[in-house]
Sequence to fold (138 residues):
Amino acid sequence: MTNEQIIQWCLYNLKQYGFYLLVSITAVFAPINSTIITVFILILSDLILGVYAAMKRGEEITSAGLRRTISKLFVYEMVVLTSFLGETYLLGGILPVVKLVAGVIGITEIKSILENSGDITGLNFKTVIKRLGSKNDK
Fold:
């Protein structure tokens, strides 16, 4: 075998094993597919509304702000993935860690989305929610 043939053989095997690894990882995380997508959509919604609210306030849109969103996306998704691994393989499913973590992330993002929506529409959603709550008490 020549050096070129050895390199081609190695590259072929790397592609094959890379494909098998990707399929395996996808299969492991398939049960939380909807959670991963939901976290992504919440972060994307927060980004879109945040940019729109900043434009409405006359603020400059910087790459640093977008970089923070990319970092947040990466961190939140990694937290969801690692909590799934911990819940499944360390705790045996005794404690719903993924739901707790996703719930905290979801509440954080929804709060930010409501704040951005308030900046866009001029409505204070905290006040609206409190008023709705007080009407239900009567």
Observations:
- The longest helix spans residues 63-90.
- The CA atoms of residues 36 and 82 lie 12 Å apart.
- Residues 32-137 form one domain.
